Every structure is written in C-alpha cells, then in structure tokens.
Task: inverse folding
C-alpha cells in the first residue's frame, strides 16, 4: 500500500507542478498577446476614449446651439414676413399718378 501511496503522491506533485507551469505560461502568453494587440492599435492611429468623449460632448453642444439658432432664424423670418406684408399693401394701394396731356 505504501508504494501505491508514494506513486500517487509523486503523481500529484508532478501534476501540480505541471499545472503551475501551465498557469505561468498562460500568463506570459496573455501578456504577449495583449502587447501585440496594443502595438497593432497604436499603429492604427485610433483615438482614446477620453478624446472621443470630449468630441462627443462638443458635438452635442454644437447640435443644441444649431437647434436654437434655427428656431431664432424661423422667428426672425416670421417677424420679417409680418413686417413686409403691410408695407407691400401700402405701396400697391396707392392710386396711379395721372399724366395731364
């Protein structure tokens, strides 16, 4: 029985060592893959998340300002149209001048 226990203990130690080694190898492979991926992304000249968020906020503010300016233009066009209507009626309601011959 002791021989079997020794063999099982040795097998357990070898298995544990192999698992430890595989865990270390996995960590190194993960680090290498991450490093290569970051290198590829850096070569693609992509923006960072912070830069994207800043530009996104600027675009939202610009769109809101455009909406406000469009509403103001519409209001001014309405006021201009109302101001022009009476002026055109006055000029057209004048009697034509008669020529004495």
Result:
């Amino acid at each position: 029985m002791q021989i079997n226990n020794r063999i099982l203990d040795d097998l357990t130690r070898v298995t544990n060592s192999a698992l430890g080694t595989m865990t270390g190898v996995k960590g190194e492979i993960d680090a290498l893959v991450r490093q290569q991926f970051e290198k590829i992304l850096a070569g693609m000249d992509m923006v960072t998340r912070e830069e994207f968020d800043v530009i996104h906020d600027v675009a939202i503010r610009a769109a809101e300002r455009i909406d406000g300016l469009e509403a103001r233009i519409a209001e001014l066009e309405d006021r201009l149209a109302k101001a022009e209507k009476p002026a055109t009626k006055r000029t057209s309601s004048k009697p034509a001048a008669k020529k004495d011959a």
Observations:
- The chain has a mean pLDDT of 85.
